[in-house]
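Field reference: sequence -> structure
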Amino acid sequence: MPEPQRAQWNQKDENVLLDYLLEHKSKAGDGGNFKQTVFEAAAPLVEAIQEVGAPKTASVCKGKFVALRKTYQLVLKLRSLSGWTWSDKTGCSITADSLGTWEAFIAKTPAAKPFKNKGWAHFDKMTLILPDMAVRGGNVYCPSDGATGVDTPPSSTPPSAPPPPLLSPSPYMSPPWDIEEYGVDSPNNDKSQGLLPTTPAPLKKRSAPDLPHVAPKRVRLNEQARIMLSLSESVSHASNSIERLTTPSTPHSTTIESTPKRHQQAICMAQCELWLEVPQCVALIKLLQANTDATVDMYLVLTDQEVREAWIKNELDIY
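Structure field:
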């Protein structure tokens, strides 16, 4: 059984197909993908000039455009690689000096073999049909599996580590734009050049001078003097409290706590008088509950432990 005849393409057939697609470029979708109806309309035009081979149907025309698009991607990559000078007439322009690297490249990318010393006639038309792909250039195709150019053979040496940053992350190092603010000169001390040093010098952190420690002196008062001093402060505090209570103030501006809250504070403080026995502590709490605000305020302001104990003993008749 004879093999089915295959469609055969020449440059003339390809030009007719590309001219029609260029004329109807507005119908192309993302990535230059034309709908089947476009190829159905282009097929009769290509078939009309057919000389040999099977009929060029819409599916055959679509397959041919897909192949041309892959070739265009390859040519874009070849134009971007280093190691040769691309020419639309002589392709990669391989000479005797670059023949060795070219053969190594072709071993991995056999599709590029026709472009050794021959260009591609459809490059300009494909660029007009696929302008987005032309902008992306060599990034759309990578046939060499990691090769970056034919002039550099593949290397198994791992890439070197990136260079360290110019600036140290130390909190005491100024960035380049602040170095003059802190008075740090360049290494050659030549301010007339107006250049900043490549790596700014770290600033030294100034430490506070060591001062001799002087312990505060505490003046010791006898018991009668402490009682008189505490009572004087208590009377002054009570007077200030009465003045604040009688002075009109705007809403939400009073600084005196409410009576229930001051009583609660006093009762909580009374429970911390651990030197009292339980009945005596209960008697102190009842005293604070039953008496006026002045008694509560007096108790709250007695911050000296000995003075406060003397006041409690006096109020509870403890001897």
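Note: Residues 138-159, 161-197, 250-254 have pLDDT under 50 and may be disordered.
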